[in-house]
Specification:
The protein is mainly alpha-helical. It has 4 helices and 3 strands. Helices cover 58% and strands 11% of the residues. Helix 3 crosses helix 4.
């Protein structure tokens, strides 16, 4: 009988996840209906238009903590003012301090910092210098 708490918690979690699945399936169906209506409107103007040739746009959910591009700029500013290479963790802490954010938001900020630094790396603005435990060390590119 010692498993009743575990089973109760798992049942509760399962019910929550099933509710989320049902919600998202309804949302998918609503979006699909809207897509069919737009396709029909396109065919109304040009029946020969190849709708399948339309490429999908990537859906991006932006952070509520940062304005668009703000985290990217803060990361670069932090690296510009650093005397040495900085780890992702340290950059995150500096940014959290600048914005006055709470510790509970650290995981979200870390994700945004990682994404911003990887984007800057692809553009050749920053480069990886190594690892600091589990955190990547960064510096501005030469």
């Amino acid at each position: 009988m010692g498993n009743t708490y575990a089973i109760s918690g798992l049942v509760s979690k399962r019910a929550e996840m099933a509710g989320q699945i049902e919600f998202h399936q309804k949302e998918i169906e609503r979006l699909r209906q809207g897509l069919y209506q737009i396709d029909a409107s396109i065919r109304l103007f040009d029946p020969s238009y190849r709708i399948r040739s339309i490429k999908t746009k990537e859906y991006r959910r932006y952070s509520r903590i940062f304005k668009k591009g703000e985290c990217y700029r803060l990361c670069l500013d932090t690296l510009r003012h650093a005397a040495d290479v900085l780890s992702t963790t340290l950059i995150t802490e500096v940014i959290m301090h600048k914005k006055g954010l709470e510790r509970e938001q650290q995981a979200t900020v870390t994700d945004s910092v990682n994404n911003s630094l990887r984007f800057a790396e692809r553009r050749g603005i920053v480069q990886r210098v190594g690892m600091d435990g589990i955190s990547i060390r960064w510096q501005l590119a030469d």
